[in-house]
Automatic annotation (TrEMBL):
It comes from Nocardioides pinisoli. Residues 7-48 form the ATP-dependent Clp protease ATP-binding subunit ClpX zinc ribbon domain. InterPro entries: Znf_CppX_C4. The lineage of its organism: Bacteria, Bacillati, Actinomycetota, Actinomycetes, Propionibacteriales. This is ATP-dependent Clp protease ATP-binding subunit ClpX zinc ribbon domain-containing protein.
């Protein structure tokens, strides 16, 4: 299965984007960023007062409990997106006939541990090489 931007969310604001939406996403290593967040971060990084403000207390220190609670599902959605991307990446490696031993070596774990963590396709369930 090809890796796509379909159904992805911005890892920074949690907004859904990608194909079929107005929100363009760019990313790498599983994290995605929307144009709005890029613009906002760019504006902050080029404004010394904004940099100073952003370097102060963490945003959650100013949030009330309801805001902190409301943020939790967005954090988990971003984390799950990254885990899903790792699985897609392993699928990519497997489609290139990279062995479970090589994947395990890259992760610093055994072939068996890599297979147990990432095998999910029916074709891979019987292939431990
Ligand atoms: Zn965003």
């Amino acid at each position: 299965m090809a890796i796509t931007r379909e159904g992805r969310i911005c890892s920074f604001c949690g907004e859904p984007g990608g194909p079929g939406t107005d929100l363009r996403l760019l990313g790498g290593l599983g994290a995605q960023v929307c144009a709005t967040c890029v613009d906002d971060f760019h504006a902050i990084l080029h404004d010394e007062e904004a940099v100073a403000a952003a370097s102060g207390p963490f945003p959650w220190e100013r949030m009330d409990d309801a805001e902190v609670l409301a943020t939790l599902p967005r954090i988990l959605a971003s984390a799950e997106q990254n885990i899903s991307f790792a699985h897609e990446w392993v699928d990519l490696l497997r489609s290139r006939s990279i062995s479970w031993a090589e994947i395990g070596r890259a992760l610093g774990v055994s072939r068996q541990a890599a297979w147990e963590r990432f095998s999910r396709r029916a074709a891979d369930k019987g292939a431990t090489a």
